[in-house]
Write the structure tokens for this entry.
Amino acid sequence: MPPTFDEPIHQRLSDLFRERISSGEWNEGSPLPSEAELCSQHGVSRGTVRQALASLRGEGLISGGRGKPPVVARPVPSQSFGTFMSFTEWAHSLGMEPGQRTLEVARRPAGEELAGKMSLQPGEPVIQVLRLRLLDGAPTMVERSNFTAEVGKALFDFDTDSGSIFGYLTSLGVDLSRGRHVIDAVAADETDASLLEVAAGSPLLRERRLTYGRDGRILECSDDRYLPHLANFVIENTRQSKAAMARIPQVA
């Protein structure tokens, strides 16, 4: 893709550095050229180089700083919001092996908060699933899913340790066609800490999702909590088109 020269210089430079990392020219664990070398190579100021490196550091592509030379960091698997895919599909798209360990599948009455989110009446039954999700055998995410009883009752006939719940339900003709995602940070509770093998209170990346059928009904409400060094989320947009993701202020 040809460069867009109306972009700021530091942004074009960070794009170039990202390409060097993704192509393997700058390998994981290898130190980057010094700021002076980068300034000389690209004919830019030290401030421009620092801005470009700051972008990469913010994305987790490089580590170091504060007196330590930057190095290429271990890549964090990213999930794009350009398409709606399950954890299993995402893992396969990365060439990684998904896994899961089920802690619970239960039928319970929906509390007021959950009922409100799912447009149900309080006390209506929902099917709740608690699973630990894995990438290449490593604990990655704690999945808390709530399905309407009509949809979720099928899970009592499914081995939820065997694979994708979404894949199974779709194979039965359940229409899971659209998702609304809210991404934020949350502290690990005791269950998260035990399953993800981190200290209670550790920061986690949370994805809260409502899944809709084609008719607009809410079929699932989930709370998925990821180890931040093992997953992140990516959205691409332009000035010409509005992205589907919005910034939502938190209410204190």
